[in-house]
Amino acid sequence: MLEKELVKLIKRLPKVDLHVHLDGSVRPGTAIELAKQRGIELPGKEIDKLLPHMQVEEECNSLEEYLRKFKLIEPLLQTTESLERSACEMVKQAYDQNCMYMEVRFGPQQHRQLGLSLAQVIEAVIAGLKKGEEKFGVKTNLLVCCLRHHSATLNKEVVEAADAFLGKGLAGIDLAGDEAEYPANMFTEIFSFAASKGIPVTIHAGEAAGPVNIKDAIDKLGAVRIGHGVRLREDPALLAEMAARKIPLEMCPVSNIQTKAAAGWYDYPLRDYFERGISVTVNTDNLTVSNTTITREYMLLANRFGFSVEEIVQLIHNGIEAAFLGEEEKQVLKRKLEAVVLTA
C-alpha cells in the first residue's frame, strides 16, 4: 500500500502521455449518445451493460482479444462531429489526471466509411484537440497511423496527409496493427517516403513480436521512438544500443500486461529497462479499453516496483524529452514539472 503523501504527490505531478489511441479512449456515455444519433444498435444502452463490450478485464488472454474491443467504436466515429467531440473529451480526461501534454494517435483511414476525405477526418480530430487545449490548458499533438493490414496505396495517402498537416496540430506518424503477421520490414518504402518529407516516426514494435521488429523499425523505417518495446530484452545487444542512443520506449504498463506482451507484473521489464539506462516513458495506450489513467499507471509502478518520487519524476522527464515538440515547448513543460517538485 502506498503512503498517502506519495499518492497525493503522484496525483499532483504534471504528467505526459505520448501513446494513447483515440478509438480506445471514447467514453462509454459518449458511445451511447453517438449510437443514438446514428441509429446504431449497441449491445447495451446503459453504461454498466456496455462496458464489458468496450473494456477488457484485468486478465485478458491475448492482443487479439484486446483488439476486439475496438470493433464497437469504429462505426460511431465516422462523422466530423463525433471525431471532434471524442478528441476534445480526451483532453478533458488528460486534464482530470493533471496530464500537461498528450499525443493522441489514430488510423484516419478507418474513419471514412461515410465518405469523409482524409483531410476532413484529420481536421476534425485536430479541431477537437485544439478546442480541448483552449478549454483545459493541456498541450496536445496528433499522430496518424499507417495500418499494417492496409495497402501501400492507403498508407501512402496517410503519409501525404501527415505531410500536409505537419506542424499544424500534427506531429508525427506511426505504424500500428498486427505486428506478427505484418513485420516492420514490409513497410520500408512507405517510411522512406515519410523520411523524405521529414515527418517524425514512432513505430509499434516488440509488443506482439520479437526484437527484430524493433531493430527494423529503427534501422529500416527511421523510428526515433518505439511503441511498447516490451520484448527488447530478448536481444541484449539491441538493448545496449538503444540505451546508448537514448531511443525512447513508449511503455504502457496496464495494457502491456493485459495483452500478454509480458506474462504478468512479475515478468514486466520496465524497472529493468529503466535501471539499464533505457529512456523509458510511461503511457496509457487506451483509456477506456484498458480502464486506466496516466495517474493509475504511475501508482502501479510505485506500488509494484517501488519507484520513488525521484524516479517517477525522471520517467516524466523522459516523456518530455521524447515528445515531438520543439526545445522551447519542452522547456515550458519541464518548468511546470519542476515547479511542483520544488514545492513537494
Strands, helices and their partners?
Blueprint (H helix, E strand, L loop, with lengths): L3 H9 L2 E7 L6 H11 L8 H8 L8 H5 L12 H17 L2 E8 L11 H19 L2 E9 L4 H14 L4 E7 L11 H9 L5 E4 L5 H9 L5 E4 L7 H10 L3 E3 L1 H6 L11 H6 L4 E3 L11 H12 L3 H14 L4 H17 L1
Parallel strand pairs: 1-2, 2-3, 3-4, 5-6, 6-7, 7-8
Q: Strand order, biggest sheet?
A: 1-2-3-4
- Backbone CA Rg: 19 Å
Strand-and-helix sequence, N→C? HEHHHHEHEHEHEHEHEHHEHHH
The amount of helix comes to: 40-55%
Which class best fits the helix and strand makeup? alpha/beta
- Return the domain count: 1
Largest sheet: 4 strands, parallel
List segments where confidence is low: pLDDT < 50 over at least 5 consecutive residues. none
Compute the number of strand runs.
8
Global geometry: globular
CATH architecture: Alpha-Beta Barrel
Oligomer classification: single chain
Mean pLDDT: 95
CATH class category label: Alpha Beta
Q: So how many helices?
A: 15
**CATH H level, superfamily name:** Metal-dependent hydrolases
Strand content: 5-15%
CATH fold-level topology: TIM Barrel
Separation, N- and C-terminal Cα atoms: 20 Å
